[in-house]
Amino acid sequence: MTISVSAKELIESLIENISTVIVGKNETVELALVALISNGHVLIEDVPGVGKTMLARSVATSTGCEFRRMQFTPDLLPSDVTGASVFNQKTGEFDFRAGPIMAQIVLADEINRATPKTQSALLEAMGEHQVTVEGTTRVLPNPFMVMATQNPIEYEGTFPLPEAQLDRFFMRISLGYPDVDQEVAIMDQREQADPINQIKSVCTPAEIIGLQSKASDVYIDPLVKQYIVDITQATRQHPEAALGVSPRASINLMKGGKSKALLSDRDYVIPDDIKDIATATLAHRILLTPSARMREVEQENIIADVLDGISIPGASTKK
Q1: I need a surface site. Which of 27, 90, 163, 197 has the fewest CB within 10 A?
Q2: For 148-205, how does the pLDDT look when each residue is reduced to its tens digit (9 = 90+)?
Q3: Please, are residues 180 and 17 in contact by the beta-carbon 8 Å criterion?
């Protein structure tokens, strides 16, 4: 059994539209949509100039969501993120002026250039979809997604994200450099005009909420759930991991697997759906041991090792 044609066509149109700006990176675009449909947040980590900001803008434009951008700098304050009350001389009262976090898709550009205090202003918003300012709690719009970009921490003037902040991100993805043909295509594309200024929305926020609802209804077999737990448990027992992934990672793998199945025009999850998103969903949550860091072991290596060591179940697709 497959999902409705309208949902399938909607997802395909989103991928096609975003890919007019992000050339040759369909896998990364799909991962970003998996996170959006799973009601999660994305950390885009890569070197400058490869299209991190363009990915966030194109997702927001394609989905018709309200978009706000925050440029993170060392002098950015938490109130610059959440908003603050300002005295109105005409009324004699304080009026709340919402910060950029009160949008549907929020770009936190170069998030690791802000201080940890400012970074932490995002924690409540990302975890509970609300912000509390001066004792008043305000619910964020739906859908809501933070897309943060960061340059690798080897670059000067950056503050590494704390583990609690990293765990709030559904996925960490990377665009990477384009190949020769892709780079030529990008140059041709931007010779006259920037395509980001030409793309239009192909759906509405309400349709994104509809996709989120469809994804939650996708069936996942108990054997596939056990497969997820086997993976997460293995990261906690790996000799090169000082800290494995949290139970939140298991939940995110399940949700992401459902969204990946939806993208593949299925109403049930298969183990390959989990494998396809495992690295993006889990790697950034692992804390390496000092010896592993000295030997320049990557978190992705641990995930690959874990996946190789766990047998794939033959899950039933019937309820």
Answers
A1: 90
A2: 998 776 566 678 888 888 899 999 999 888 889 988 988 888 878 788 888 899 999 9
A3: no
Amino acid at 86: V
Return phi, psi of residue 193, to 5°. -155, 160
Architecture of the 1-189+200-210 domain: 3-Layer(aba) Sandwich (3.40)
Q: Which residues sit opposite 288 in a β-bridge?
A: 241
Between the alpha carbon of residue 198 and those of residues 17, 68, 147, 171, the distances in Å are: 10, 18, 21, 28
Three-state SS at 215: helix
Question: pLDDT by residue (tens digit) across 287-299?
Answer: 999 999 999 899 9
Q: Are 189 and 181 in contact (CB under 8 A)?
A: no
52-103 per-position pLDDT tens digit = 889 999 999 999 999 999 999 999 998 899 988 787 777 877 788 888 999 9
Written as one string, the DSSP assignment of 256-297 is HHHHHHHHTT-SB--HHHHHHHHHHHHGGGPEEPHHHHHTT-
The encoded tokens of residue 161 equal 């994200």
Q: Looking at the chain, which residues constitute the CATH 1.10.8.80 domain(s)? A: 218-319
CB neighbour class for 148 (10 Å; exposed up to 12, middle 13-18, buried from 19): buried
Domain span(s) for CATH 3.40.50.300 in the chain: 1-189+200-210
What CATH code is assigned to 218-319? 1.10.8.80
